[in-house]
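QA checklist item 7 of 12: single-chain prediction sanity check.
[x] sequence parsed
[x] length recorded as 94
[x] structure emitted
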Amino acid sequence: MRSRYAAFVVRDEAYLLRTWHPDTRPPSVGFDPGMRWTGLEIEATSEGTAFHTAGTVTFLARYTDADAPGELHERSRFVRLDGAWVYVDGEFLD
């Protein structure tokens, strides 16, 4: 999760697509040129250890967009695919 957040910060589309499950991966990542990510807080995790094939990460990511602050609160699902963890999808939280 932290590596994907960092990839959003530096706009590393290749890394994001490589770590996205092929069944849910978009053809490209649309970066908002006015958005600047400012912080990440991991709130909870479930499963996702070396002994699991799936796991979740609940996080709060902060950003500014056109100088207005905002937050993205999500519970993300990950699965292990060919030995690597990949992002499947997420549920937005209030």
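[x] summary fact logged: The mean pLDDT is 97.
[ ] second reviewer sign-off
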